[in-house]
């Protein structure tokens, strides 16, 4: 037979369904927030890991001079090399309009039915593609302005226009999503490669090391041995891409999401604790006289503590029934959306076991822990105090300075003055409610501030590159000739020839680090405005000085300004002095190899100009995207006529658009979280206001008995809710500063290896002020309207 105390608990749960629902909802919103963020995190990481492992990712890719099958066989026979595979990768120009062209990266695969590393998988259409046809990566089809079965007009490096029919779609998880890079990808056979005028050879070597592939030092050592073997064959390794083990191409976008998800989950957990403390305190306040009656007939404090903690446990179970399904649906929807952006396959709806365990812990243990103090404090009240309790204010309002100041206010309407007094009557309740809203508002504003910081960083990166078009050539060309050719075109305001190569730092024992790009340019250039984080920029009088960006520094974390480093450039070792550290230039590519900047004359004294690749930076008279595109097309035609083979032409506008798309993924994600937190804040305030209305039911009856109208009662509670919301706004804005600063720094380190340019979102703060006022009014309206509909007899008889 159920004991009386537990019958009371069950009666409390069933007897006041509105109160039960509101308390359970207050617990559920915290579980929902934690479950949604954790569920998204787990589903994304698991699906992505499984999808990535299925493609047999390589340990490294070496970009070299053309080689044949013999080099692949000799590499496979090396110790600690498990697998090696060759492909031919190159860029052609793709026509997307009458005078519009964009880069199209093609990859020639020798045997589509025997891809061993970085697998490209069929999506739909022909497999392998027939001769003079191409497979387009599924995420890139929209950038081609065509569909399966249509023909593409491409222009290889020889300048002739060819047609390639789209035979179907492929899925390549090892490629940067085309929506991020702005560059579509395609796959062809070696027969088609020859038809396009390229040699039947390989120029990229995909490698999988044997042994511990998670050991970066082991991987680096094996790849160094392979590089030495390739160079002994007389070929130059242009650069090596050695990804961090277990990471994939779009990891630089995923990791900031993971960081933000983790931070928001922890903050949501804290927010849930505040909600529980607030709601349980309000619940106990309603039952003060009941506690007095139970103690008068012999109930001990320990028994009452167990009774109310049991009530909390039941409410937690109800909250779990509400939150777990909703959180699972939300997490599934968000992870599906992110999967479509990052271009991996989601395995379907499910509730991960660890997320379920976390939700149960949050829904049961956190409420119990949060309720422990208010329960213990509440049941310690004496019988005399409990039986003499009269509800709101407890007879103590007006005794402190703040209360007396409120009483002296004149000129306000009676409902408004009553709202102000009621707001400050329960100061502990008020502080808990404000703390909950403050934390929610702080996180909301912090999310907007991280977004603003991302956009500020993008603007700074745009001004970093003071040119509009970059042109890469397939070999070394006379600088004066290619500059003169460009300057003859209408719309070209400046043209500057740069040299480029790759470099690797040589360590004390002869070990070499990862490759980074080396840009050789005039020290007094006007077409680059780097953001210098430490040290200074190059000077014409420098002798073998170098400025490293933060990505290049990531491969050599011990290097600082003033250090001398030994670089291996075109198989020559030379010493350079680091004079500055520059902010990484945001790029559409996710292969972050880093960049070092040196004076063109200095590099020419080390490496003959004939061994350097030529490139050109062009400034145009107008800077909009359409004008840049038209000038780029004219440059392509002019260099084709001059028999100067280009490998890539890219406008700064296109690059910025691709970077913006990367940022958009994160900002949309942040906006989703901000909306979630706004909902949590609204529900928490609704729960608090509902508790206030229930607690003051008899007071409402007295007001109604002396002639208060329904509208007057509504006004008192709605204004009270708005006042609570507005009181929390400035504190939330202040707290958002440290939270958003930390988040911006962490996200910046993931994106650019340096903190973002922090920008506090004033618009986000003002938006929250307006939003919290609206939410407070709506959250107060429903419980106040419910109270106003009660008869005088009902509310005066309320216990």
Automatic annotation (TrEMBL):
Locations listed in the record: Cell membrane
Main location: membrane
Signal peptide bounds: none
MacB-like periplasmic core domain boundaries: 431-616
Keywords: Cell membrane, Membrane, Transmembrane, Transmembrane helix
Domain ABC3 transporter permease C-terminal residues, every copy: 263-377, 672-791
Entry GO MF terms: transmembrane transporter activity
Keyword Membrane: yes
Any one GO cellular component localisation term in the record: plasma membrane
Transmembrane segments: 21-44, 257-284, 305-335, 355-376, 430-450, 665-691, 712-739, 759-785
Membrane topology: Multi-pass membrane protein
Similarity annotation: Belongs to the ABC-4 integral membrane protein family.
Protein name stated in the entry: Putative ABC transport system permease protein
Species the sequence originates in: Geodermatophilus africanus
């Amino acid at each position: 037979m159920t004991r009386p105390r537990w019958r009371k608990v069950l009666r409390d749960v069933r007897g006041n369904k509105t109160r039960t629902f509101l308390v359970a909802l207050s617990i559920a919103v915290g579980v929902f927030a934690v479950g949604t963020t954790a569920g998204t995190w787990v589903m994304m990481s698991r699906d992505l890991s499984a999808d990535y492992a299925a493609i047999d990712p390589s340990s490294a890719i070496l970009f070299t001079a053309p080689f044949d099958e013999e080099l692949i066989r000799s590499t496979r026979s090396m110790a600690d090399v498990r697998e090696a595979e060759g492909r031919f990768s190159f860029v052609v120009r793709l026509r997307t309009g009458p005078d519009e062209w964009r880069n199209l990266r093609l990859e020639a695969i020798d045997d589509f039915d025997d891809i061993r590393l970085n697998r490209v998988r069929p999506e739909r259409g022909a497999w392998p593609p027939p001769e003079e046809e191409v497979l387009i990566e599924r995420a890139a089809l929209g950038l081609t302005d065509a569909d399966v079965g249509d023909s593409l007009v491409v222009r290889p490096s020889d300048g002739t226009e060819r047609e390639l029919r789209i035979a179907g779609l492929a899925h390549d998880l090892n490629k940067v999503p085309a929506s991020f890079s702005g560059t579509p990808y395609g796959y062809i056979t070696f027969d088609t490669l020859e038809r396009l005028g390229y040699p039947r050879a390989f120029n990229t070597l995909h490698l999988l090391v044997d042994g511990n592939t998670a050991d970066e030092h082991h991987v680096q050592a094996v790849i160094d041995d392979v590089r030495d073997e390739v160079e002994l064959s007389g070929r130059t390794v242009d650069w090596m891409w050695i990804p961090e083990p277990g990471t994939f191409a779009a990891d630089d976008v995923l990791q900031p999401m993971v960081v933000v998800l983790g931070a928001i989950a922890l903050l949501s957990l804290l927010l849930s604790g505040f909600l529980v403390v607030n709601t349980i305190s309000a619940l106990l306040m309603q039952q003060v006289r009941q506690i007095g009656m139970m103690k008068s007939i012999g109930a001990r404090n320990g028994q009452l503590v167990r009774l109310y903690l049991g009530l909390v446990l039941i409410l937690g179970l109800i909250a779990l029934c509400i939150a777990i399904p909703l959180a699972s649906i939300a997490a599934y929807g968000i992870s599906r959306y992110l999967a479509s952006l990052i271009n991996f396959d989601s395995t379907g709806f499910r509730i991960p076991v660890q997320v379920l365990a976390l939700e149960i812990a949050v829904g049961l243990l956190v409420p119990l822990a949060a309720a422990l103090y208010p329960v213990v404090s509440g049941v310690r009240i004496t019988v005399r105090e409990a039986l003499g309790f009269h509800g709101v204010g407890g007879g103590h309002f007006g005794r402190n300075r703040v209360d007396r100041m409120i009483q002296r206010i004149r000129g306000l309407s009676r409902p408004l003055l009553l709202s102000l007094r009621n707001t400050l009557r329960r100061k502990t309740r008020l502080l808990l409610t404000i703390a909950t809203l403050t934390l929610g508002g702080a996180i909301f504003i912090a999310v907007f501030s991280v977004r603003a910081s991302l956009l500020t960083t993008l603007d700074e990166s745009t001004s970093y590159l003071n040119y509009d078009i970059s042109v890469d050539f397939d070999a070394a060309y006379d600088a004066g000739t290619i500059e003169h050719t460009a300057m003859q075109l209408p719309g070209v305001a400046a043209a500057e020839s740069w040299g480029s190569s790759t470099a690797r730092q040589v360590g004390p024992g002869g070990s070499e680090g990862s490759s980074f790009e080396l840009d050789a340019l005039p020290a007094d250039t006007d077409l680059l405005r780097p953001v210098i984080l430490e040290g200074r920029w190059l000077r014409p009088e420098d002798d073998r000085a170098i400025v490293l960006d933060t990505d290049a520094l990531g491969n050599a974390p011990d290097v600082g300004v003033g250090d001398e480093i030994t670089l291996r450039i075109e198989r020559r070792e030379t010493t350079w002095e680091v004079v500055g550290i520059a902010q990484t230039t945001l790029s559409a590519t996710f292969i972050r190899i880093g960049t070092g900047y040196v004076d063109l004359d200095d590099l020419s004294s080390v490496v003959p100009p004939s061994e350097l690749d030529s490139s050109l930076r062009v400034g145009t008279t107008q800077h909009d995207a359409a004008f840049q595109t038209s000038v780029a097309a004219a440059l392509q035609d002019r260099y084709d006529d001059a028999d100067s083979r280009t490998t890539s032409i890219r406008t700064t506008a296109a690059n910025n658009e691709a970077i913006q798309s990367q940022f958009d993924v994160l900002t949309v994600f942040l906006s989703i979280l901000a909306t979630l937190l706004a909902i949590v804040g609204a529900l928490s305030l609704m729960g608090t206001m509902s508790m206030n209305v229930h607690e003051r039911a008899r007071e409402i009856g007295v007001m109604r008995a002396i002639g208060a109208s329904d509208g007057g009662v509504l006004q008192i509670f709605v204004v009270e809710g708005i006042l609570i919301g507005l009181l929390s706004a400035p504190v939330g804005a202040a707290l958002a500063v440290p939270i958003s600063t930390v988040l911006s720094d962490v996200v910046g380190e993931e994106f650019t290896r340096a903190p973002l340019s922090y920008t506090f979102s004033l618009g986000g703060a003002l938006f929250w002020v307006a939003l919290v006022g609206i939410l407070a009014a709506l959250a107060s309206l429903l419980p106040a309207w419910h109270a106003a509909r009660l008869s005088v007899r009902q509310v005066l008889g309320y216990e």
